[in-house]
Specification:
The structure is a homodimer of 509-residue chains.
Chain A lengths: L1 E3 L6 E4 L6 H12 L2 H4 L2 H17 L1 H12 L3 H24 L5 E4 L13 E7 L2 E5 L13 H9 L3 E4 L5 H17 L7 E4 L2 H9 L3 E7 L2 H13 L6 E4 L5 E4 L1 H20 L11 E5 L2 H12 L5 E2 L3 H15 L5 E4 L2 E2 L8 E3 L1 E6 H6 L14 E7 L2 H10 L3 E7 L7 H13 E6 L37 E7 L20 E3 L2 E3 L5
Parallel strand pairs in A: 3-21, 5-6, 5-8, 6-7, 8-9, 10-11, 10-18, 11-17, 16-17, 18-19
Antiparallel strand pairs in A: 1-2, 3-4, 4-20, 12-15, 13-16, 14-15, 21-22
Helix pairs in contact in A: 1-8, 3-5, 3-7, 4-5, 4-7, 5-6, 10-11
């Protein structure tokens, strides 16, 4: 795997070797063999905290490598490293708390109706080796040491990551940090492994000991791997985050009262990280007429950054995608996207905004391209004449990670509630009077949405992300000595449990 | 669809009409249109309770129809109806409690690290129309008014059931009871619908508005539908319960101390409901030698029932399956299964027990047939010489709903704990010193297991069964008036919530 400079397209030489099917087999078997060692919640927590510390220790080197391979810049990557370490520590806390075990205990009840009840004790157990596919656009937070890896380890699952070809050297450095952390936590180094190469990824999904997959990437690549996972003799869960349009609705009253603020906010949102976020607002339903025009004017005149995209192939796709969309009948290029070569970054691009009357989207298939995600700094304004026309467009959209609405300050009526309900149907996160970029790591976060945003109902961010790597098991009439510790009387591990219908928090230690 | 008498194979005439693709389209669209009406938790609870009352009111007629179509007998079917109504009422309580919404609220925190936190409020929303496939062996509890239907309605999802061809008239009567209940609850009748016919089932899984599938049935049928669900342009969750061997291990010390009790218990367990339970113990690992022989002797001499299976096709499969297994080299027929025609039930069969040395299973592919589920009253004893041989057999098994172990009274050592851990890898429920038949409806129950027991990590019995039909949504910075009631300050619906990391029960009303 060559390490490529996205600013120039030049190669910095080989950074990693593509794994063969035999290499993948070795890695998965070695990871599988660490399951027993990982069964100890406290060792897992220690591993996750050591991983955060190890990444911080190597931070300067990792950030330099990631910037050289992604051109995302030191400020952004410093923030991303902090977020990555925060995720690791959050999942360490979760692993230690035992909340993810979702313990339910129903004591025996010989008088229960309609039938006597045996002693039943349920907890969750790890699925086994988890395959993680690193994302191009988050070389740390959604890659080798990212949320999928952290949540899988917290759940007790060994992890084999398929590194992203856009940043192989970053992947190698992060893999080293994870192995160092395992040694510090007294765990085998093979609890995590990293493999490189397209074929290695396919072999990883096909491997009989791979128990689940976490993926962040394109619809085409993700769907191909989902199909492989589903067609296995033993199908496995495939938690994929694929593509997302992230529609935004600006109501007529919002445009009438907050045009400049919304336009400026939009310009910042669709160009943040050069539009290379899965939650970039890619479609904005904006009223036709003067109020909407004022929003457009503010968006067009806002200062937006030019810069290189993550890789030359993505740049070609962006330039071709914006050209093709701009050429559709009725589509206006209100801000022209294009190449913007600079001396130090000849592959730079500049952001763009397209605009189309909502009526055009109803006419035929040709304009459907406007409803497909176009990765990079471009957004499509859809100008609607009335609410019915606006809602008709919403009715044609597929699932997204987010859906956003901008209201006027006092717009809190039944029509507003109806619009929020419509957006709920489309997405896993509904944002009001803000922008979807920025995915907070918090217990209530949900980062997922109806297909193609996700291939499952799960989240890849937030505390509930561990649910993806666990399955419940119920023990019936099992003697105390033979039960997992979290299910024993007296609650020796101090985990929260629902006992005979009552949620019981552990006593503070 | 003809209603067939499984005792004689004779037809009682047509009971229902096969649905065309157009009929399925109509039913799914009509169900989809009821989603808003079903959004009211209290109306759903009322519907579920009215359904239980309606089924009880029509109980005599329903039980008579079910017995005529399944030959399961009045005692069993009376119990199954009670269980079905209990399930409906349990899910009514759940819908009313709001526990299934899994509300998490994180208030805004401008000082949060590494980034300020917006106000985030997460709950769960219904997926949409759920397709339910009725099971042959539970004409009530896992069919039209069964657990899949009850849990989906509790979650707020309209349901279209594909009735089982073994009991079409029972399905028609139950469909009528559900429509009556909807009217009583003030809900549209189309919140549930029932369709008949194989092609209708396929059309149901393919329908664009079908959002998820619940299935109980064979590996072949279930896998075919799983493949269709996964290959859709928009794949949908397929929660299938397919096939299960339900292994039982009898330790050497258990056989030495409890042979008669275990043998008698086994005879009752594998013949209960004529072996037509998904949790029938189909494989028993039993020590070689005199102690194990004593278990066999007790099982062989126990009195076991003969009777008709659920349908003539199943009878043929049972007779052919037991014949083929008995003909394998080294397999002994310690109790010969076979046809057992009686005057009033010429299609009856009698139970059987096969036995094979564990070493045979290691030799080659031909004996793999013994590790496939054979539906009906037959079980396979695998006689092992040592623990390593026993564990080698366990290592070759695929997933099951249950795994059972019989220990001696004081057998609580590390080897016993290791055996429980091995069984945990194989199944969704581990039973100690008992039998897996009998699936208690209780919060801690888990009815599911690694593939092919289930196609997902979900359960079809117990409170967590609703999770299958919901997806999370997070609302970011959303004004109070526009939030769903369960997320508003003051908790007007009184649902349990996790607020800023603390689980908060509603105040008692």
């Amino acid at each position: 795997m060559l390490s490529i400079d996205p600013r120039t397209g030049g190669s910095r030489g080989p950074a990693a070797t593509e794994a063969t099917a035999a290499d993948v087999d070795t890695a998965v078997r070695a990871a599988h063999a660490t399951r027993t060692a990982l069964a100890d919640h406290r060792a897992r927590a220690e591993l996750l905290r050591a991983a955060a510390a190890s990444l911080e220790k190597d931070g300067a080197e990792i950030i330099a490598a990631a910037d050289a391979e992604t051109a995302l810049g030191h400020v952004r990557l410093t923030g991303e490293l902090a977020r990555t370490c925060h995720q690791l520590r959050t999942f360490a806390d979760l692993a230690e708390s035992g909340r993810h075990l979702e313990v339910i205990i129903d004591h025996a009840d010989p008088d229960a109706r309609p039938a006597p009840r045996p002693d039943l004790r349920r907890c969750k157990v790890p699925l086994g080796v988890v395959a993680v596919f690193a994302a191009s656009n988050f070389p740390l937070a959604f890659s080798v040491p990212g949320g999928d890896t952290a949540s899988a380890l917290a759940a007790g699952c060994p992890v084999v990551v398929k590194a992203h070809p856009d940043h192989p050297r970053t992947g190698v450095l992060c893999a080293r940090a994870l192995r160092t952390a395992a040694a510090q936590a007294g765990l085998p180094g093979d609890v995590t492994a990293v493999v490189h190469g397209l074929e290695a990824g396919v072999a990883l999904v096909r491997h009989p000991l791979t128990a689940a997959v976490g993926f962040t990437g394109s619809v085409r690549g993700g769907r191909a791997l989902f199909d492989i996972a589903s067609a296995r003799p033993r199908p496995i869960p495939f938690h994929g985050e694929l593509g997302s349009l992230n529609p935004v609705v600006v109501t007529a009253r919002a445009a009438a009262t907050r045009a400049a603020e919304i336009g400026t906010g939009l310009a910042a949102a669709y160009t943040q990280g050069l539009g290379q976020f899965c939650v970039k607002p890619g479609l904005v339903l904006l009223p036709a007429g003067a109020d909407g025009d004022a929003v457009v004017a503010a968006a067009v005149t806002a200062r937006v950054p030019s810069g290189p995209l993550l890789d030359p192939r993505m740049r070609e796709a962006f330039l071709a995608g914006t050209r093709a969309r701009a050429a559709l009948p009725g589509v206006e290029e209100v801000l022209a996207a294009g190449a913007a070569g600079a001396a130090d970054a000849p592959l730079s691009v500049r952001p763009g905004i397209l605009s189309v009357p909502a009526g055009r989207l109803a006419v035929g298939e040709v304009h459907r391209a406007l409803l497909d995600e176009c990765f990079g700094p471009v957004t499509v304004l859809v100008r609607y004449g009335c609410e019915a026309e606006r809602d008709a467009v919403l009715g044609t959209l597929t699932g997204s990670l987010t859906a956003t609405v901008h209201f006027a300050a006092d717009e809190r009526d039944a029509a507003a509630a109806d619009l929020v309900a419509r957006l709920t149907q489309l997405a896993g996160r509904v944002v009001v009077d803000g922008w979807p970029t920025g995915v907070t790591v918090a217990p209530a976060m949900h980062h997922g949405g109806p297909y193609p945003a996700s291939t499952s109902t799960s989240t890849s961010v937030g505390a509930t992300a561990t649910e993806r790597w666990l399955r419940p098991v119920c023990y019936q009439n099992t003697p105390q000595e033979l039960l997992p510790a979290e299910l024993r009387d007296g609650n020796p591990l101090g985990v929260p449990r629902t006992v005979d219908g009552v949620y019981v928090l552990p006593a503070p230690c």
